[in-house]
Structure formats: structure tokens, C-alpha cells
Predict the structure.
Amino acid sequence: MNDFLRQFLIESRELVAQATDGLLLLEQSPANAECIDSVFRAFHTLKGGAGIVEFAAMERVVHSAEERLVQVRSGKRTLDPGLAGECLACLDQVSAWLDILERTGALPADRDPKADMAIDAAGILDSPADEIRSAAGMPVPQNWTASLLSRNSSVRGTAVSAIRFVPDRDCFYQGEDPVARMSALPRLLALDLEPVSAWPPLSDLDPYSCNLILTALTGSSVNDVSAHMQGHSGDCEVIAVSAAAASRMEGPLPRNVCKILEEQLALLDVEKVQHLPGRIASAGITAANTMQYCGRHDHAEALKRALGSGVGEHARVSLRDAIMRLLASDSAAPAQKAEPSQPPETITRTLRVDAGRIDSLVRLTGELTIAKNAMGHTAKLAQANGDSVAGLLKEQHGALERLIAQLQGSVIGMRVLPLRSVFQRFPRVLREMASSLGKAAKLEIEGEDTEADKTIIEMLFEPLLHIVRNAIDHGVEDANERLKRGKPRVATIQLRAAREANQVLIEVADDGGGIDVERVREVARSRGVAMETDLRTMAEADVIDLVFAPGFSTATKVTEISGRGVGMDAVRKAVEKVGGRVSIASRAGQGTTVSFSLPFSVLMTQVMTVEAGGQAFGIPADAIVETVRVASEGISGVGDARVIVHRNRTIPVLELGTVLDGSQKSRAREETHATVVIAAVAGQWVGIQVDRPGERMEVILKPLEGLLSGTSGIAGTTLLGDGRILLVLDIGELLQ
Amino acid sequence: MTVRLTTQGEIVLEGTCSSGDAEILLQHIIATPARQVDWRACEFAHTAVIQVLMAANPKLLGPPAGSCLRDWLSPILELS
């Protein structure tokens, strides 16, 4: 793939995200002009990008949605859920295309029929212009307010309402005088007339058939203007022009553009009439082209119109006035004009860096840590030998340690993203799920600025999606049921995040019916998830925790939404894989809360070193419950297995030395006491018998590579200061 | 008369021009090759009259007397 396409992909994805966010926000607050702008800009830029890489199908799809958004922008319609859905569907198609493009490096082969389908599905083929026609049967231009505002830029700041009035053709016979009515509008700021259809030759002109479109800007409210226009015959549209909408139309003219215009003015202002026709034509064309260049097409048109009247004195005057108006309206905003030379001080500077480069930095930092540890070990050796450089070595080791800690902090910071990037996908997910299940639910998001490592963020979506699905599908009751229980009709799903020391806590809470504990017992019994005897004595919280057990599903009917074969056990597995935990709490009739506790960074793993069979192992600290010393006779054999009874639990014991290397018999068995590290994985406790417990340390794990990559039970390795390799255990795998 | 043709072949609009004046104005414009309209004494013109001025686009001798014509309509008619 060439750089061009790569850039297009990155930008398009960002724009799709921007447009999606905006559309969802607009559904909540349809009048948010800033948001409308942002969505519109995103669609517009997407279209432009597609044009540059010659992706015509995408251009068409995006354009069709953009066309509709123009109406929203001009205030002609609000963004109802139907329209939002159509635009989101277009974005979905674009995303699918981007995926293919990223995978294959080429434009998708079936893009044209897909584009037709997308446009058809969105119902955009029936051009909106067809829907909105004036009585005369003429389409209403969608951006008349925009062009009216740009033609009358000097009153932009004061305009409150815009009016477009197309009188009936026979209105003169009814004694109406549309121009008089419009010019008497309260606080009139600008008035414009244009023919509905091109003027016929004068000999064919019917002076009593009204062929005019009257547009105006006023400083009065829509209500006042509507009241004034009451009783007219014809089509009248009154639109509120917000200050934001009015000012966004145009910024000041760039300095060089002003300069060009001033020069054209000088050309027109000369006393001598020598070569006047040439001067007028030249000045007019230059000015019009300049405006075209700035994207001010309406002004360019106005200048061309002024020129269209010929190249005589009349044209000179109208052209001069038109240019002067342009310059005058521009100087009406002096505050803005002074700005360009000084860039704003607090500019956010970002740099896109390939994730692979950051990962290699992470690896290097890990290596550096190992080198530092080796240096620490050397310092210790030197001290033991009474070497004279020992002090110096120790000092420098200390300095290096501080620097590396800082480096690690920075590197970890680079891989950190706000949870917003995951959370922001949920409003849309919830909207679609709720509507497909016929339930009403709203989403409340809290703490989306909380940050976490990229790996955590990337793995979070699926588990969260599953939990939210469950909440809507199984948790939230039908509207009628909710009302009966005295709850608001619309259910609330909360997505909360917070940082607590080195942990990121995430909660998904619903205000639904809660988990039916008896039903969980029943299912667990019938599916053999837990033994009958255990179930009877189990605490309620432990019973609820059984929903995470493999093969458990309380859904009586498998629905499309939550019955996809991914159980809660997969959620727990995914979370534990990154060193996190997940738990569930529920209150009957009041709702369920699923809590995730995840490490802030997956780079650093807290381990406890242990020794077994002459080898150093690391056990992830977050899995360790406690370390106990038990008398050898306390370990009893049950068949082939060995167990201890601790805190009223029967805990299986694995002998680490033999589990990993069956041939070697550990020394531990011959001693009178055994050291057992008790670890908890997926709610299951396991004892790991070791020769000797070591120290706690923070390590950067290196995954197993090459021939060793298939070894089960080992999460990764790291080097100890003395050069020995520390194998860090994956307790979950070890248990299997 | 609010619309009249001078002996020099110039069309003059005066006072308040009603809708009935539109047809007369149109005929005068068609009849005079100079197509110049003096509306300096015009106080008010009905939409129908304005429409004829827009369609014919004659050379206007102004500014007109009426403030509405002067402020709102003469810029439009001069540009059309």
C-alpha cells in the first residue's frame, strides 16, 4: 500500500469516528450547531479524501448522506432517528470498505453495487429536493440561507431570522404587494429578489404574473416575522439564523486576497478612461477568480453578474461597489483580522507514531531494566569482595535505576489511551440493541477520561459489549413490567470508569431485574456446573459468580443479541488474560453490576519469585492469595492428587518442580514442612508447592519465542540480575 | 400620471406607482430603444412595477425619492 492510501485510511477512520460521535450527540441535542458543523465537516472531508484516492463509490455514498445533512445544517429539518440511522449506515459501509482496503491494499471489487445498495437502503436516491418543492413546483435550493448570509456578510452578526418567500403567480390579482410586505418586515437587514424562472423576452412578459423569489434577513425573531407574513398567498419559509451559524459562514478574507481586491479597485478608480473596457473586464475576472479561489462562490457569482452588465461606466460602478462591499464587510471584523500573524499559544501538537515503534521502545526499556539489574548484581558482588569501586558502582546503579524508572513511566504513558475510545462506541451499540429488542434504555457514561494501556483498551470492547448485551437482553425488563415495578420506563445502563492506584476499575450497572439466584442454582445443577452438595451450602454471591463458569447460560431462549455462544466465561478468561479480574453483584429487582478490575499497564507485571527444582519462577502477584507453610503430613493424597485443607477449603496442591519437569523429584517432599503459595484463578483456588519463596519484583515480561512459544503454563520470561532466567507462570494454563 | 414618456423619449416614474403602471411601463420600455428610466421622483413602486424593471433591466436614473426604493431595491435593480 502506498503512503497516500495509508494516510487516507488513518484519516478516514478518524473522520468516521468523528461523524459517528457527532450524529449520536445530535440525536440527544438536535439544535447543537457546533455539532452539526462537526458532523458536516467530517462527511465533507471524507468525501474529499475519497475523491483524492479516486474511490468514486465511497464518494457517492458519503455525498448522499452529506446532501441530507445540508438540510439539517440549514435548519430545514432536524436530525431525527431515521436520518441519523441512514447516515450511520453510510458510515458503516465506509468502515467496511476501509477494512477491506486495509487488508488487501486495493479498492473493494464490489464497491459500485455496494454503493448503490447503501444509497438505496438509506432512501437517499429520492433526492430531497423532490420532497421540498414550492407551490410553483420549483425545487427549493437547500442552502439559500447560507448564500443569503454570504451575500450580505455585513449583517451576519445581527441577523436573527431568514425569510424566503415565493408569492403565488396570481398574487397581484388578489391585491398583494409582496415587495412592500417584505420591505416592511420589522428590523429588516437585507432584501433580495430573483426570478423564479429566467425572464422571457419583454414582448412575452406578463407583468401581472409574479415571477419572483424574495429573500430577506431580519433582526427580528422567527415568531415576529411569521406573524408579519401571515395571510400571504404563496410559499413562505422563516428560519432562525443562530449567531453561530451566521458567523461560521465566512471568516475574514486572507490578507493577500484583500490586497488583490484593492489593486482591482485601483484599476477601476482611475480617472483616465483609457482602455476602460479592458480594465473593467480584467479587474472583474481577477476579482471573481480570487473569490472563487477563497471558496466564496456566491461573491464570485455576484462579481460576474456585475461584469455581466457590460464593460461600460455602469459596469465599472457596480463592479467597484461590489468589490468595496467585499472589503468593507471584511474590515467589519477587525479583531479577527489581527490574529493570523500570531499562532495561538496553547496549540495541541500530536504526532502519529506507528504502534510497532512504541512496542520496540517498550522492548528496549525492558532490556535496559535487565541490564540495570545485572549492574546491581555486579555492585553486590564487588561489595562482597571488598572491591574499591563497589561504592561508585552502587551509586551509579542508583542513578541508572531512577532514570530507567522515569523512562518506563514515559513509555507506559505513550501506550496509554483514554477509555473514551472504547466507551464512545457504546451509545450506538446500545441504541441499536435496545431498538432491536424493543426495549427503551439510555446510557450514562462516567469517567471516560480514565486512561489505560492500549492492550487493555483493545481487549475491553468485546467483554463490555457482552455485558451490555446481557444487561439489555436479560437484565432490563419490558417497559410495562418496569412501570408495574415503579421504575422509570426507560432503563439506565451505566458505564463507569475510575483509576485506583495501579488498577483501572470499570463497572457496567443496569437498573433491571437483577439475577435470579434460584434460577442460577437450578441451571448450575442441571448443567453440572457445580455439585449439588456445594450448591446447597454456597453463599448467594458465590452462586451468582457461577454465571462465569464455563458452559453456563441463563437465557431460556437464545436471542440474536446475547446468544452468540460467547458466555460470561469468555469474558472472565479475556480479563484474566491481561491480569485483571471481573466480578458480579446483583440485587433482586434493583439491578446488576459487573465490575472489572484491570491493571493500568500490562507492561509491568508484579511477580513473586519462588524457587522450585533449582529453577527460579515468578508467580503473578495479583493471583496470589497467600503463602502458607504446612507440615508435610498436612498434605494428603486423594487418588493421584494431593490436597491441603485450608480455611475450610479443600485446595489441590501442585508441586511446581514436578509439574514442569516430570522426571525430577523435588526436594520439598522430603522436608518436614512445605511452602505452599495459594493462588486464585477464575474463582478456583490452587496451592503451588515450592522449595523457597523469594522476593516481590516488577518485571517487563518477554513472551516466549521460537521453539518455546508453545510451552503451556509459562506466561513469559525475564532475566534476573544475576543472569538467571525467571520463568513467569500462567496459573490458569498450569491448572489445565 | 405616475409613468410617462417625455418628449425626449425618456421614461419617468413619479410618486406612487401602482400595479396598474406595470403594463404601461413595460409597453414604454419595449417602445423606447434608449431604455432609460428616470425614477428620481418615484416614492413607491408596486411589486409588479419592480418586476418589469428587473426583467427589462433598463438604465436607471436615480437615486429614487422613496426610502424603501433607495435602500432596498435600487441596489438589487442596479445589479440585475
Summary: Chain A touches chain B at residues 167, 172, 176-180, 183, 188, 191-193, 195, 199-200, 202-203, 205, 207-208, 210-212, 302, 305-306, 309, 314, 318, 322 (CB under 8 Å). The longest helix of chain A spans residues 355-384.
